[in-house]
Fold this protein.
Amino acid sequence: MFSNPLRWGSQSSYQQVAGGLDAQKCSPEKSASLFSKVTYSWFSRIIILGYKKPLEREDLFELNESDSSYTVCPIFEKQWRKEVLRHQERQKAQVSIHKESHAGKPSLLYALWNTFKSVLIQVALFKVFADILAFISPLIMKQMIIFCEHTSDFGWSGYGYAVALFAVVFLQTLVLQQYQRFNMLTSAKIKTAVIGLIYKKALLLSNVSRKQNSTGEIINLMSADAQQLMDLTANLNLLWSAPFQILMAISLLWQELGPAVLAGMAVLVLVIPINALVAIRVKKLKKSQTKNKDKQIKLLKEILHGIKILKLYAWEPAYKDKIIKIRDQELEFQKSTRYLAVFSMLTLTCVPFLVSLATFGIYFLLDEENILTATKVFTSISLFNILRIPLFDLPVIISAVVQTRISLGRLEDFLNSEEILPQNIETNYAGDYAVGFTNASFSWEKAGIPVLKDLNVKIPEGALVAVIGQVGSGKSSVLSAILGEMEKLTGVVQKKGSVAYVSQQAWIQNCTLQENILFGSTMQKQFYEQILEACALVPDLEQLPNGDQTEIGERTRILVTHNLTLLPHVDLIVVMENGRVAHMGTHQELVSKSKNLTNFLQVFSDKEDAHASKRINVIDSKTILEDQILEQKDRPSLDHRKQFSMKKEKIPVGGVKFSIIVKYLQAFGWLWVGLIVATYLGQNLMSICQNLWLSAWTKEAKHMTEFTEWKQIRSNKLSIYGLLGLIQGLFVCSGAYVLSRGSLAASRTVYTQLLNDVLHLPLQFFETNPIGQIISRFTKDMFVVDMRFHYYLRTWLNCTLDVIGTVLVIVGALPLFILAVIPLIIFYFTIQRYYVASSRQIRRLAGASRSPIISHFGETLSGVSTIRAFGHEQRFIQQNKEVVNENLVCFYNNVIANRWLSVRLEFLGNLMVFFAALLAMLAGNSIDSAIVGLSISYALNITHSLNFWVRKACEIETNAVSIERICEYENIEKEAPWIMPRRPPSQWPSKGIVEFVNYQARYRDDLGLVLQDITFQTHGEEKIGIVGRTGAGKSTLSNCLFRIVEGSGGKIIIDGIDISTIGLHDLRGKLNIIPQDPILFSGTLQMNLDPLDKYSDSELWEVLELCHLKEFVQSLPGRLLHEISEGGENLSVGQRQLVCLARALLRKTKILVLDEATASVDLETDHVVQTTLRKEFSDCTVLTIAHRLRSIIGCDRVLVLDSGRIIEFETPQNLIRQKGLFFAMTTKAGLTQDSETKNKFL
């Protein structure tokens, strides 16, 4: 289904917030003088400031209003809406005239052109002017050589040529830098526009579309495909500029060498089809690599979200192998691509030589009297040098176009994917009911099997309604239907007023507690405090150092229950069974209707009425959809996260340490490094030898006819010229091959080390660092390592050798040139020092500003149902715009810094050209015209080489920031080793005796103790209940047992072995836990149960039967091989929890920790599961972390904690008799008033 253009909102949603651009440090670009604009002198203050101190975000200039996302996004969305409407009209027209509708789709490319065509045309005009100026320089040089050949014409005209040459190259510099400035910023605006559209579309996706586009794939569209579009735009003009330059060069060469230039054209005609074949092959590889990258990001994101499960079960190696397997496939694609790049390198270096060789050879064959003069040779060589760049650019841009076509296709598929239909729900209903269903049936897909059937429910306004039923009965689906998240197949759904929604899986943003609670609403202090009291958050906030200003991480967990304690207090109960309403009425009506239903309710309704009633509070008459009960329990998010706040990404300052580059070279391999230096040295020596040979040849040309065998001599000289070119080609191929091998080795080593570092980090790191920061290392930073850093190193090395060779050649021809070179090089290095200090820090700021984009995007995708339920799409679009704009500010400053550098470096290069030309003119008839041609042609080349040399040196340092960011994780304190020399016996633990001896623990060295002097011992096979108020340390105790938190004193002994003396995997692999969070990973059900592939199918079926999942799994098409979607979203939360129970039963060990294990299953299933656990783990030591006191009925002893200390440790019966803290807790919960429960305790 194509996008509904009317749903994309108006431009008003993109209005700037107060304190936006106007309140920030505005760019002085608009008010600057013309000279300041063309030389970028207005930016000098940032460069100087960056040299004096590390730049901070506040130091940077803000964007011009026309470049910001505030302006760009609404303009582009308007054009996209127009394109969608045009496409729909074309389809209607085809249908109306009975024509078959072609399977087309709205064109993203056409919408982009309509948005940015004026600035793209402006950029193209700059490029045309710069290209024309580039060809004027060889023509002036030609006149200078002619001037030197005719000494009788000596006069002031020679100096005029030198000045004219300087003026042309300087003007070319100014025009080219304006082209680069507009080009780069336009490409950034295109990326911004596309990201804004992707984000907005992600908020509108239907359930089917969300299944088709995983979170990883959508993030990849934003990070990789939008970037690919930006990269193409930055080079788009080369698509016409390269052929234009080639034609210009050929036409000028025709004037010098006549029809012989057709031989050179023939070489080009042969090369371009080969490049096209290479591009087609690259397209296929790129398509495969993109799919592979999507899988990698998806799995990586799941691993990071489920890292606690991996650590508790010691599954890190299994999932590491999965990631490495995908990464190896990606490197195979990269290897093929890089071997194809060997041909591109050969094209860049050798095609100009082959063109010149063919041209010179045919030139001699056309007329035996033809000779190569200095004028013809060096004018031709200059033109060949100009020709080299477009010859290289053309295949690159063709390849980029091919790759971008893939990205455009993916983007268009996504932007035209199916959206949720607003008409599924009537929201303008003004009747007596808050929500009404009339003969309504729903499915998750348009053509899918109905999940909810024939619903006829009228929910009165202001009523409190309970929807109950067994796991998979459709309870959560009812709420999804009200929210419009499901496809309505039949019937009518009416909704009155606004909605508040509590998701079954808690979605918490990475911001302060207060911001999470307010969720965009205006602060009303008295009402806010009432809400805190109603949600039992006041005791938690009192324990947090910053209260409700504490920043919450991305892994906050809240218990999901099927609690029926509220049923007597609600106005209406809806009982779901197999997707239908089985019963509906008040509690009393349902109890009186059916004996079976009475039993159903009575069995599972505990009598915590007093506790429940405290949590029932009608706050507002608005519709509140609640898919969970927030238990007043020991929340891990507030227990140990009270010691942490989310960390802002640290931005390094100062120069990148040389050791960072050394680390990369070590990963590259010193052998490969040495071979690369040798091959590139040989390549540059051969290039110099070719030009020196031509210079010597032209010196002799005027006297060539004096020799009797001059034709043979000319043929020999041409053969030697060809041999030098052949040797150069061999060096080029060897260098490209060595570079490919070494860079692949570096990519593999760096990635593996990063993955190892991340998997060995302690859990606290993941709870205090946004996942976006970590993923950014694996995506953007690894992209630099994979694709860019080795290129910058190679280019810098090549430019260094080229500059050295050029200076030596010019100084050899014109010794006085050394006097001009020395001060100019001093200026070069001075400019470089100032630039690098600023550019490096701007690059770091840009890197840090990328992570919030990814984090916010991922966060939005996780909570899209909640955002849509509250109707806060526009607020989140605004937030996305703001984080994108922050990154744009850094990009803008980086672009201007580069232009500032280029103008100054090229000006110094232009001075070198001027001095070389001036010295040649001053020498007059004392210097051969061949030497003049050689020196000036090299001088014209040195401007580009020196500029590239300094720029690539800067690029190496600024891109080394990515390697620096990757290496940061090496220096963070890791967990203990997975395996240590001392290993426990294979049958350990055999008794299950757990002993804490004077144990203490804290979360950080600078924080207080969270467990103090904990000393107790269990008996073998004993069942221990662990209770305490919120923050008492219950979950911390279990974390210490698994060494998630390391001790600060004392020890923990299991069956006689101090657990601190063995490896983490030897410990965690012998313990068992059923955690609160039912986390599953994408892949087969079998893989989720047994990722290490240790158990047989029969064992898997046995545990599924024990967990009452066997019948359900047998009904699935793939049975054990059924594909679990990302996060287990194609299973209900209760089913996910049962899968986690099956894991524990499969992994049966002597010690089991239960952390509210049946939180997400209905109470009937809970009863059966508890019976199964008691039977299957009867011979095991079981530690139950009790958030509900009823769950420890039947425990042998109860451990009571308070403020990290043991207060009581006795049998439940003795604790009740002692009337201490445990007695007070049971009394408050109403358990001692319940005779049945009291008898169980006593």
The chain is about 60% helix and 10% strand. Residues 155 and 921 are 9 Å apart (CA to CA). Residues 1-24, 556-561, 602-644 have pLDDT under 50 and may be disordered. Residues 316-366 form the longest helix (51 residues).
